Amino acid sequence: MRFEKVIRPDRTLCLGSYVFFWGQKQERTPTWYGMFLESGEETAPVDVMHYLWNGNWPPNCSPRLERAWLDGKTATENIRLRPGQSCRAKVAATDPDQDTLAFKWEIMAESTSKNVGGDRESKPPVVSGLIADPARGEISLRAPSKPGAYRLFAYVFDGKGHAAHANIPFFVDETSKGQQAATARQP
């Protein structure tokens, strides 16, 4: 960790450290910089700060959301779906304290704000009615009918005030139909 390599060893020029608390606000996504979810749950960065400042982990740590998939792809794989296309999404999540995990999923349109440098943005509304069983770790969903850029958000809660999150950007367009059909015909 950079803190342990750079800040902690410098007892001459570094008098201490602090965390800049960004607060809870939309900036590209509602989870971009936050150490807490909008609903108040702590995320892993709070655990790390506790460890760095106290020398031990908190008595109960945040769950870990190791990986997320949409239509068998991860967030970096340029996911394109047809309007109304049905597909699956899932997460790989664990809890270091073996707490029972609860899940929540949401779809939002991609932020279209032109604000920069920390300016406040409006949070895009949740696109409802597209996710079957949003309280499970693996879900079925239907892509929005309106073409455009969207994000699928996954949240994992431990029931003890801690959470983890991930999001997967995806694009909905009519041209995806031809691309997928061509891919399906390849041997």
Can you walk me through this structure?
Helices cover 15% and strands 29% of the residues. It has one domain (2-185): Immunoglobulins (Immunoglobulin-like, Sandwich), CATH 2.60.40.10. It has helices spanning 2-7, 44-54, 175-185; strands at residues 64-70, 79-81, 86-94, 102-109, 131-132, 138-142, 148-157, 163-172. The longest helix has 11 residues, at 44-54. The protein starts with a helix and ends with a helix. A 4-stranded antiparallel β-sheet has the order 1-3-6-5, with no helix packed on it. The chain is α+β, with helices and mostly antiparallel strands. It has 3 helices and 8 strands; from the N terminus they run H-H-E-E-E-E-E-E-E-E-H. The radius of gyration is 19 Å and the shape is globular.
The coarse silhouette is globular
Which runs of at least 5 residues are low in confidence (pLDDT < 50)?
Answer: 178-187
The CATH topology annotation reads as Immunoglobulin-like
Most strands sheet:
4 strands, antiparallel
Distance, first to last CA: 45 Å
Whole-number tally of structural domains: 1
**SS content category:** alpha+beta
Range of helix content: 10-25%
Record field, number of beta strands: 8
What is the CATH level 1 assignment? Mainly Beta
Key words describing this protein structure:
single chain; 187 residues; alpha+beta; Immunoglobulin-like; four-stranded antiparallel sheet; four-stranded mixed sheet; 8 strands; 15% helix; globular; disordered C terminus
Secondary structure layout:
Layout: H1 2-7, H2 44-54, E1 64-70, E2 79-81, E3 86-94, E4 102-109, E5 131-132, E6 138-142, E7 148-157, E8 163-172, H3 175-185
Parallel strand pairs: 2-8
Antiparallel strand pairs: 1-3, 3-6, 4-7, 5-6, 7-8
